[in-house]
Design a protein that fits this description.
299 residues, alpha/beta, Rossmann fold, 2 domains, two-stranded antiparallel sheet, 8 helices, 40% helix, 23% strand, globular
Length: 299
């Protein structure tokens, strides 16, 4: 007799990640979660002249113009951080295998980071976006806030095929609604119509923004499995292709590499650090790798 699989509830998801992810992170990061983010829950304190090692994002351009020399704003760091998750739940996020879709990776990452932040006394909020902003969860602290976030994510249905995603709507919405300087995680596959780069850059001037890019290996390399029908995850448009054709597979891979190069350039120009999350990668390894990169950049 088969034992029924326990229902997937927010509580069970949180318990699973507490045991399989967060405990491992505790050991590997030794509690140093500040390596993941700079922790700017901050208040303005003073102005001083720019020094070569200063972050250019804190240059006060109005004062610089008046004084004819660069000045930077100084901040006093609060102990409490307010973090926001900007979550892309458009149709392309449902791509993947039966074992792991990009949406699954999104839920696990958001739950993990929300738990880490709230258990240290910080507040979290979220903005859900598919073809438009669907839901705003105000920032609050505590374990119940994490469970509410997970519950609302599980209840958010996959979106039917729709016009191409416009992430600029999400970023402009965040610019208008998030007033206090915050830590912002943008969790998306960044499959979007162009035009989101400038609002992302503006968002990063006000807040500390981390881009978390979701991807699946099959979006980069096509396996040689013969004739198949490819479907656009956003619009539902279908295309018959023969994956035996080596030249076609090469063109497909080259187009994916060019897209990734454009994405990395956009993140660099916006001054945003980007973390890559694959549907086939261990979440702990990805977070630790990103933390080490951030640690090196701060030295």
């Amino acid at each position: 007799m088969n034992t029924p699989t326990p229902a997937l509830t927010p509580e069970r998801i949180l318990q699973r990640l507490d045991w399989k992810v967060i405990r491992r992170l505790d050991g590997l990061l030794q509690g140093d979660y500040r390596t993941l983010f700079y922790g700017f829950g901050v208040d303005f304190a003073d102005l001083r002249e720019y020094q070569p090692e200063d972050d250019v994002r804190y240059i006060d351009w109005n004062v610089t113009a008046r004084m004819n020399t660069p000045y930077v704003r100084q901040y006093v760091e609060d102990r409490e951080i307010t973090a926001w998750f900007l979550l892309d739940l458009s149709p392309s996020v449902d791509f993947g295998t039966l074992q792991s879709q990009k949406r699954t990776v999104l839920v696990d990452f958001v739950t993990t980071m929300a738990r880490l932040l709230t258990r240290h006394g910080n507040r979290i909020g979220a903005i859900f976006f598919d073809s438009r902003i669907e839901k705003v969860i105000p920032a609050r602290g505590g374990r119940l806030q994490v469970l509410r976030l997970v519950n609302d994510l599980m209840k958010q249905p996959p979106l039917p095929k729709a016009p191409f995603t416009n992430l600029d709507q999400l970023f402009n919405g965040a610019l208008n609604s998030i007033r206090k300087r915050s830590l912002i995680f943008v969790v998306s596959d960044f499959i979007s119509a162009p035009g989101w780069e400038r609002p992302l850059s503006l968002l990063n001037r006000r807040h500390e923004v981390l881009a978390v890019r979701l991807w699946d290996p099959r979006e980069v390399e096509l396996p040689d499995i013969g004739p198949i029908i490819l479907e656009d995850a956003e619009t539902g448009e279908q295309l018959y292709v023969d994956t035996h054709d080596r030249k076609f597979r090469t063109r497909f891979s080259e187009a994916a590499r060019q897209r990734e190069a454009k994405l990395n350039l956009a993140f660099k120009q916006a001054g945003v650090d980007a973390m890559s999350l694959s549907t086939e990668e261990d979440l702990v390894g990805a977070i630790v790798r990103f933390a080490n990169i951030r640690r090196q950049r701060r030295k």
